[in-house]
């Protein structure tokens, strides 16, 4: 790897607004939505420059030798970081959508099979399940319902009952079909909206007990969820975005497939020249080159870990973000006169994202225009932006706390939301009379 040590000889700035020095934000913009696209630290941007230079100095040498060797080293580091039993169980893909599509489209679907998603599954991922169900042999999509406020123990209890009910459905089909269909469950580790940690390890365990495949969407996990140990959690498949909470350059994601399940992923997507090469399983080789892309984001994962070590490491970073999420979320709820989505005082759903209710009347429309209005009124007009979503009869704000955040940012946001929500009520009404332009109940999730 390039020598980036000199960047890290001095002490890092303290967390809070001074840390903005390490990012390239518009000085007028308050970024409270790190969760959607991540934010590239300037030292990481600096550390990857030599790799871009190498790629252009000799494109053949870089793509045929240098980048392959570099990415092998990075994969080794990442495999250790996530607690995979073997480096060969971890490959890079451009983003979580890519990884999850690779998994879901790799199963050989048969009549009677079941794909389980959830009402809170990231929209494009539940659409992936829907698409697979729309084409022959039409596996059935079944949905687990998660309604906040709730608690981890309630979710686990409901999940167990739900998975057992899927198994009963399967038994009935098995009698008709003369074979046992498969069940594949998509489980979020941290939901997109609400931004909430799920008891995913327990959910995976229940899947194991009930002979159900577990596909874990961990898009928000790496860099936010501490002490990942995939060998212990033992999901059947797991995907995470390094460009969100881990500070890698977009697009950089990890696809984890334990050796026992690599036979399911017969071909990378797109198909690699290494498909079927050598006869045996060559999972890693297929993902090493399956179409020309910018490979530097994959290398940037290692640079991001260097940056995070300089900051003090995973616990130091996440302890700060978690504290600001909780303090900031409570302050925001106080300003708005509303509440945080966590029901229990141990705030088991909140890591670095906190969800606070918008002060709208309960009659308020769920129309997509409301979300669009918030985007215009906050992102464009007021230069501050969290994410907005409609859940269980209410509009919510998902705030991401980061190393540059301070509770004061939540106070600025509070004032902006009070103004914007008042304007929205004036423009769209409170839902008791129809003022919106249509697409009721269609709130797109792009978080
Ligand atoms: C839970 C979840 N899954 C999947 C994705 C898709 O990530 P990407 O757009 O990087 O593919 C996101 C994006 O925010 C997400 O929040």
From TrEMBL:
Encoding gene per record:
CSL-3
Q: Which UniProt keywords apply?
A: Lyase, Pyridoxal phosphate
This chain belongs to which protein, by name? Cysteine sulfoxide lyase
On the tree of life, the source organism's domain of life is: Eukaryota
Tell me the ranges covered by the Aminotransferase class V domain, including all copies: 40-124, 171-345
Organism field: Lentinula edodes
Membrane spanning residue stretches: none
Name the InterPro entries for this protein: Aminotrans_V_dom (IPR000192), PyrdxlP-dep_Trfase (IPR015424), PyrdxlP-dep_Trfase_major (IPR015421), PyrdxlP-dep_Trfase_small (IPR015422)
| GO molecular function per UniProt | lyase activity
Q: Which PANTHER family match?
A: HERCYNYLCYSTEINE SULFOXIDE LYASE, L-CYSTEINE DESULFHYDRASE
